[in-house]
Write a structure and sequence with these properties.
It is a single chain. By secondary structure, the protein is an alpha+beta fold. It contains three helices and five strands; from the N terminus they run H-E-E-E-H-H-E-E. The protein has a domain of 83 residues: HIT family, subunit A. It has a five-stranded antiparallel β-sheet, with helices on one face. The N and C termini lie far apart (32 Å). It binds guanosine-5'-monophosphate.
Length: 120
């Protein structure tokens, strides 16, 4: 699979400081900031600083240090947010997954009781 990164996407602009964001946590490899249109009281987006379009791209090509740095940012977001009762982590991917922004991001959503994602 070819992953083609568009450096004009909105999260690339946030990483370059061209668009403001409300930062929750940042380290060498990842940035976490509040979603502009929150779906719940806690809605944070965690993104790698590298040019990866999706979870599968990041999982395939990111270095171990980038992957560890990203997951450390997820851990810090959870520590800093009101998610002791739980949360949902979502990475929408490409067309079927309804991904709007083509820079890999993980949504951390919580702070209230969420509905089931899938019927069972
Ligand atoms: P996706 O549909 O790609 O999984 O999610 C993209 C998310 O990015 C959406 O939840 C949307 O609200 C958020 N978003 C889009 N543009 C901006 C922006 O400029 N700033 C912030 N903080 N969030 C954004």
């Amino acid at each position: 699979m070819d992953y083609i990164y568009d450096d004009q996407n909105i999260f690339a602009k946030i990483l370059r400081g061209e668009i403001p964001n409300t930062t929750v946590y940042e380290n060498e490899h990842a940035l976490a900031f509040k979603d502009i249109n929150p779906a719940a009281p806690v809605h944070v987006l965690v993104i790698p600083k590298g040019a990866y379009v999706s979870l599968d791209h990041f999982a395939r090509d990111a270095s171990p240090a980038e992957q560890v740095g990203f997951l450390q940012a997820v851990a810090e977001v959870c520590r800093l947010s009101d998610v002791e009762e739980g949360f949902r982590a979502i990475s929408n991917t490409r067309t079927h997954g309804v991904q709007d922004v083509p820079h890999y991001h993980m949504h951390i959503i919580g702070g209230k009781q969420l509905g089931r994602m899938m019927p069972h």
